[in-house]
Amino acid sequence: MQPFGAVAAVDSACRRVHSVSANLGALLDISLPEPDKLSLSCLLGKRLSQRLRRAMQGRENLPAPLTFVRQTHGRNERYQIHALRSGSQVLVEIEPLQALGKWRLLGAVNERLMKLADATHQEELLDNLVGSIQELTGYDRVVVCHFDSDWHGLILAEALGGRLPTILGQRFPASEFPVALRHAYERNPIRYIQDLEAPSVGFLPKSAAPSLEDSLLRAPAPDRVRYLQNLNVHGSLSLAMQGDAGLWGMVVCHAATPYPTPPPVRDAVRALVQMATQRLLLLRARQEARYLQRVQDSLVLSSTDRKEPQSPEQLLSAQAEIWMELFRAHGVALWIGGNSYLAGNSPAPTVINQLVKRLTRTHDHSGPWCSRELAKNPLTSSLTMDKQCGLLAVPLPFSPDERGWLLFFRPQQVETLYWAMQPSPNHPSPNQPSVLTLPSPSTAWYEEVVGKSEAWQRVERLAAVDLGEDLTLAISAYEISKLNGYLEQERKALAEANQRLEQLAHFDPLTQVWNRYRIEQAIDAELVAAKRYGAHFGLLLFDVDHFKEINDTHGHALGDDVLVALARMVEGSLRGCDHLGRWGGEEFIVLAKHADLEALIGLAERLRELVTMLSVDGLSKPLTVSIGVAAWQPDDSCKSMVARADEAMYRAKHGGRNRVEVAAREVL
Ligand SMILES: Nc1nc2c(ncn2[C@@H]2O[C@H](COP(=O)(O)OP(=O)(O)OP(=O)(O)O)[C@@H](O)[C@H]2O)c(=O)[nH]1
Predict the structure, then answer these.
(1) Which residues line ligand 1 (CB under 6 A)?
(2) CATH value of 105-202+215-287 in 3.40.50.1370, 3.10.105.10, 3.40.50.300, 3.30.450.40
(3) How does 496-531 read in b/e, with b if 16+ C-beta sit within 10 Å?
(4) What pLDDT shows up at residue 434?
């Protein structure tokens, strides 16, 4: 461990001391008893160790450092204690607190915190942060290093104090930040090296030396020492910037010479980094929310503009440009039910079909699929997509067994990366710690990246999924409206067919008056009403006289014309409540409502006379009819009424035709 502080490793209850760093006695100016007799009270005094015990109960770390004053080397010295759990032990770290002298912390920190809280853009925020930390601490170089999705670090912001060169814009390979180191930062966000070359201090007893993995006072590993020496760095302070989904980046302070940074200054830097990280997350969340909203609006606005739901072609032709801009794509395609709809620089439909087949086979969950190296991806490498380098594919959940696809294509993006150092070829895996090959401390290594598109950002993938869901709804609405259109047509056709069937069922096809079945129904209904309410009604059964002769003389067609003309004329002469029906052949029946015998006879005579005046083209002789009249009588049935009318009509025929006869039993 580093010599500027001391550590005691104690049991989990903070009572028994297992081991102490060899410099602890000198730091506190006490002579240490035999290790097996050591307790925390011997080291810190009863009251302080009780305070520490209470503060550590149920906690992983001391929430705030404890300070104490003690007579050391004849003077009152102030110390600061920090404690953390490490496995089954608690590490108690003790550091002397020198008078701050040139450090004027409180006012300066507050002022800088306010400035950070006011920043409205990431760049402004990070520049403020590194500037503030550099001014506050006096380090020679303060940078913000951001991790990309492959854990390579990129220096996004930098403030220089004069003695170290710039590394702004440089990349550090992921091997610099192995998983174990990243996890250590998650547990303890600060790592500090006061003097790279200071001899490290051992533990007493040696056999009980604790693991200092998460301790602030641990000495740097030999690899780290070599690495920092290569960078001309002899003192450093690093702080994690913890994002929602893991480590977002780090603030790294470098000094060209050993550089003590008192605990309160480190705490102040930590407060600044925490505030900046919160602000950064907020700014990014706002930016993402604005982006997601724009993507969502792109579809909503297009569909509210139009009243009718839009087809996939219409949607694509209206929105492709804006979608390509939002997703930084040069082509977009929709694949629905075997049909491809393309815009911009998309592959041929046959290629899209193959692509979709493969995606559907291998990608069975609902999330998006993406690649920035289509030519290298086993799923796509054999497909002809020369102009496309990146693909973001979102399944559209139309139904459990049918998925559509929304596909965004990106072109190749040739990029020159400026690496601070070249990873050793023996360590090709980015997540393995590696010994770095540094050509010379200040020589950077340029890499031209070809065959890759821009990376698909997390927020872009989220937005594409949102858009996919909205598109599915919009296209389903269109399909439903199309189906409704078909159903409406079917419904109309069915109504027409029903109407035709009803016509056939109830109307005589030649004369278009009611047929026998329908007029019988009407007579039956009238019989029921008459029985109930006693309203009078009657039937007029009439038959064309010598109709056979008309047929024989003028032909059957003219006979038909006569029947049609007769029906039209009679129908036109009846009241709205009366009905005419064809009884069969050249026989017709009139159902006359609200009519007693006298009225029936009057109607019959009127009709008979009208018939004689009917003129039909081609007919040489006047037309006449013989009419039998039957008035309703209680206990009548349809059959009995028609039979009586028939008998009367028969008499009219025999009485010389062109006559009206009343049924025998009727009394006037
Ligand atoms: N053109 C035509 N003729 C029909 C139709 N229905 C029945 N007829 C004919 O009407 C004629 C009826 O003849 P008959 O029953 O002998 O009666 P009629 O010649 O009218 O003589 P009377 O009734 O005694 O005056 C038959 O020749 C039938 O073929 C039809 O729809 N169209």
Answers:
(1) 510, 543-549, 551, 556, 559-560, 563, 585-586, 653, 657
(2) 3.30.450.40
(3) eeeeeeeeeeebbeebebbbeebbbebbeebbeebe
(4) 42
